[in-house]
DNA sequence: AAGACTCGTGGGAGCGCGCCCATCTGTCAA
DNA sequence: TTGACAGATGGGCGCGCTCCCACGAGTCTT
């Protein structure tokens, strides 16, 4: 059984008594084959246990049936992980349907990021999914310039021209703040995300717009920037408490930062939600396990992954044009508010 | 810039005024090239922005410089995710060094699993990393039979013949139970993992051996099987409490099951660690965020991933023989015990 | 009955690359 | 001067596949 090489299309053709082309047609589902020939070929394939060599096929078709998912390692650290796990799950599900391979690329530093362009240039993938792009990021542009279809998770800014799938960050943040206002809170602080990312700016904009809408002045003293990590949330909370001891609520732009804020509040002896209400963003697994369970804005991460994969597939397989999609978010009220 | 096709080795050869072979030699680092020719080729490569087509190369070398990481989707659900995230991080780090691509394959069901063999047979990868294999799993054997180097995370049973990297499950579990015994506990229950997995059996064996060693009888009534999920941990805890209301400690074979156990204990009004001490296994991010913070056995997951990747690379690149490695575990005492 | 189609079929060419082997150049010893 | 040899170089070939196009056999039309 072992020892002799894998059968090629030639072997199968000989076995079935037909030409290579006919075998190729059967394998690729062309209907320009007689029932008789098709049957013989299929039999031969089964007997020989033939599997087409996709590398050889890729050489001539100039396609690989694989896409890359690029994730910056620095931001996948810590508990941001649930986000990536859910994303991968969504992406993977859709890709499996279209028999497309998923190349995972964790990018640690700039060096690896540069290398990425090259690695992608060797035509190992038909398209790229890009996560957490910063505003000034040049990678997406470079990829498009190379003619490689690209879909972003989130956008670089409001004027994004590439394909992307985004959550309704403004709407979600506004809903969170509105909820706090309705609960009678008036000094609502926010731990924002990095302001060089659209997701950070948008969630902050939602915080502002909800205040505006309710005609409650938004005090800029109540804004502190975090970096989406637990430690960043803790640090921001500390600064906020020092600056505005009278705050009665916090909207953190991520669950993980909310966890940090909770820890700092506890350390300072502030009760949640008694003294200070806390709301996060994402509804990761974390949110159900904090003490108290965290009110948060649910972001459909898995659906986001699915949509990204679907758009990319549409582009690579069917030549579809660029698409920009925004998915709705939803407030999940638990006990921290 | 766009429009004209990517340069091939031929283009570069013409540009540099040398033959294709010389370009190939330069690209692949052969030293049978004069300094002069090498310089000209390198210049041409830079000018034309040439990147070798790895698909074409793969066709002739019969290598892809890619490996697959296969993860059963069912078990990556819920909060088991930290494990996979850390594993991926470790694997990815080592692979990046050897410029190897990582194909991620989430396998949802048996159908996809069958398809996997085929997909792997198309020679898109040089080797396979396999996670959470059950004892009767035939996939590893099939892969090896196809001549595809395979490294397992964990082993199928004590007599495993394939390459694997394992944690010291017996030792870790024994250390956990020993710790509980030293704390004066005498009725130590355990929520085991699935017994059709070596990891489940081994951690249970550790529970037994620590009892034996301390000459404390191990009551089989205190054993209940879980499935590594939070809900499974909750269910097992419920059954244990009904069967043995006098238990004063629980060793859960995973952090996630420990979380479930904690929830059930709280629901029943048992205080932790006052009434019942709880110890988990893995030391995932979860463990630091439970209430109270969870004592657990640390498993070096990222190192496990690194080691797997290293072994696989040694095999595919240098023809190294099979290797079987067991990594040490370490008890991390927090407040739940 | 002969042209005009349609359908099924298969061989040749070529995708971009690495490797084998023949060729060429220069150097050194006899 | 000649032969031997090492170093440098390039062309042919083939990896396994898809696609183009030519060809034969049957069917339909006028």
Automatic annotation (TrEMBL), chains A, B:
This is LacI family transcriptional regulator. It comes from the Bacteria. SUPFAM superfamilies: lambda repressor-like DNA-binding domains, Periplasmic binding protein-like I. Keywords: DNA-binding, Transcription, Transcription regulation. The keyword Transcription regulation applies. Residues 7-61 form the HTH lacI-type domain.
């Amino acid at each position: 059984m072992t020892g002799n090489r894998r059968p090629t299309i030639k072997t199968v053709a000989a076995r079935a008594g037909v030409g290579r082309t006919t075998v190729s047609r059967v394998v690729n589902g062309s209907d320009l084959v007689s029932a008789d020939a098709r049957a013989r070929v299929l039999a031969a394939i089964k007997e020989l246990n033939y599997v087409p060599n996709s590398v050889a096929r890729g050489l001539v078709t100039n396609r690989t049936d694989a896409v890359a998912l690029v994730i910056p390692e620095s931001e996948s650290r810590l508990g941001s992980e649930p986000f990536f796990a859910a994303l991968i799950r969504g992406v993977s599900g859709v890709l499996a349907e279209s028999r497309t391979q998923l190349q995972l690329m964790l990018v640690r530093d700039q060096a690896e990021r540069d290398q990425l362009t090259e690695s992608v240039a060797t035509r190992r993938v038909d398209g790229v999914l890009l996560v957490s792009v910063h505003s000034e990021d040049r990678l997406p542009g470079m990829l498009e310039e190379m003619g490689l279809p690209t879909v972003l998770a989130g956008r670089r800014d409001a004027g994004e021209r590439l394909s992307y799938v985004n959550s309704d960050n403004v709407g979600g943040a506004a809903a969170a703040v509105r909820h706090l206002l309705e609960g009678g809170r008036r000094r609502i602080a926010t731990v924002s995300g990095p302001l060089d990312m659209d997701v950070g700016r948008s969630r902050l904009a939602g915080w502002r717009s909800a205040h505006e809408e309710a005609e409650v002045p938004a005090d800029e003293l109540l804004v502190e920037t975090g970096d989406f990590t637990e430690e960043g949330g803790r640090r921001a909370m500390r600064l906020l408490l020092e600056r505005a001891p009278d705050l009665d609520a916090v909207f953190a732009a991520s669950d993980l930062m909310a966890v940090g804020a909770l820890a700092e509040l506890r350390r300072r002896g502030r009760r949640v939600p008694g003294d200070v209400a806390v709301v996060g963003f994402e509804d990761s697994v974390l949110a159900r396990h904090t003490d108290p369970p965290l009110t948060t804005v649910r972001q459909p991460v898995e659906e986001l992954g699915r949509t990204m994969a679907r758009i990319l597939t549409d582009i690579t397989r069917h030549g579809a044009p660029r698409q920009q999609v925004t998915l709705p978010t939803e407030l999940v009220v638990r006990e921290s508010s």
